[in-house]
């Protein structure tokens, strides 16, 4: 991927909005049962350059198209051509409906309400109202949490524990689980952590630039590991409270962080020139997307 596709700032890639052209992924798997995905941009995997093009054309209708047209998830939010939903449908052979949305939060107010009004509760409502969540739903994988940290900033502090925030986040996960159970009583709830992003040998470091076969340079991770540790705790405890399954994605990605040598990274840096297929900075490459789909399939 060219440097132009990695221009956006770190926070921006996590909070891009939902004003995209609609090109849906057809559900090719047969049968009445389905899988419903809920979460943020790690599930949706939209193309950030395409999103920029969408927003430019929304303001300047005659502006040229310089990036692929973004697809639309079932939630109405942008998705990439190789999102977790399409990969999971191919690998599992089940019909998958992706209700994830970039920038989605648990308890925090949406970061850019004019562009992205979605919280987990909103996404659940959309999935219920559309009939996607129903008695034939087989599984509901959920990955969410990182966007909540930008509201308070406590994750970046040396002592990030905030029991009140975790209680609020846990309550939102429990509410979502309860509503999903009511609409889809036979569905397996699957709560996931984020993949390994920081350097496993020094979890407070990460690699912002990947260049060819050169070993990436470890640089400060600005509290990312604190945030991910808290989210792992939130997700695993929600699974335990609600009779769900927890997948620790760091276990299958420990050798594929942003600091993996050569082209072994399954999460991109802010700038990547090593040829891996990553459509968003600090998000999963195609290999990372496929691995997440494989991990979910193994728990169905």
UniProtKB/TrEMBL annotation:
Keywords: Signal. InterPro entries: SGNH_hydro (IPR013830), SGNH_hydro_sf (IPR036514). It comes from the Bacteria. Residues 71-288 form the SGNH hydrolase-type esterase domain. Residues 1-20 form the signal peptide. The keyword rRNA processing does not apply. This is SGNH hydrolase-type esterase domain-containing protein. The lineage of its organism: Bacteria, Bacillati, Actinomycetota, Actinomycetes, Mycobacteriales. It comes from Corynebacterium kroppenstedtii.
């Amino acid at each position: 991927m060219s440097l132009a596709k990695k221009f956006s700032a770190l926070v921006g890639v996590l909070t891009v909005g939902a004003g995209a052209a609609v090109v849906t992924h057809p559900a090719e798997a047969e049968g009445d049962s389905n899988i419903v995905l809920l979460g943020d941009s790690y599930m949706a995997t939209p193309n950030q350059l395409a999103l920029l093009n969408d927003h430019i054309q929304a303001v300047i209708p005659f502006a040229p198209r310089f990036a692929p047209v973004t697809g639309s998830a079932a939630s109405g939010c942008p998705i990439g051509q190789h999102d977790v939903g399409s990969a999971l449908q191919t690998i599992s052979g089940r019909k998958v409906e992706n209700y994830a949305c970039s920038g989605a939060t648990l308890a925090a107010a949406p970061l850019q309400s004019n562009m992205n009004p979605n919280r987990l509760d909103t996404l659940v409502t959309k999935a219920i109202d559309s009939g996607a969540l129903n008695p034939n739903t087989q599984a509901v994988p959920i990955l969410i949490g990182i966007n909540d940290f930008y509201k308070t900033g406590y994750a970046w502090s040396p002592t990030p524990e905030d029991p009140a925030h975790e209680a609020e986040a846990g309550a939102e996960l429990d509410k979502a689980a309860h509503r999903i159970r009511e609409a889809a009583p036979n569905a397996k709830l699957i709560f996931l952590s984020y993949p390994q992003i920081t350097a496993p040998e020094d979890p407070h470091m990460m690699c912002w630039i990947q260049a060819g076969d050169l070993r990436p340079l470890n640089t400060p991770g600005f509290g990312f590991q604190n945030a991910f540790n808290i989210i792992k705790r939130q997700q695993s405890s929600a699974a335990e409270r609600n009779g769900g399954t927890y997948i620790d994605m760091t276990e299958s990605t420990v050798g594929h962080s942003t600091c993996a040598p050569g082209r072994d990274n399954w999460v991109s840096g802010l700038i990547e020139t090593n040829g891996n297929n990553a459509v968003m900075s600090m998000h999963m490459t195609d290999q990372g997307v496929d691995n997440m789909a494989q991990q979910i399939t193994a728990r169905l």
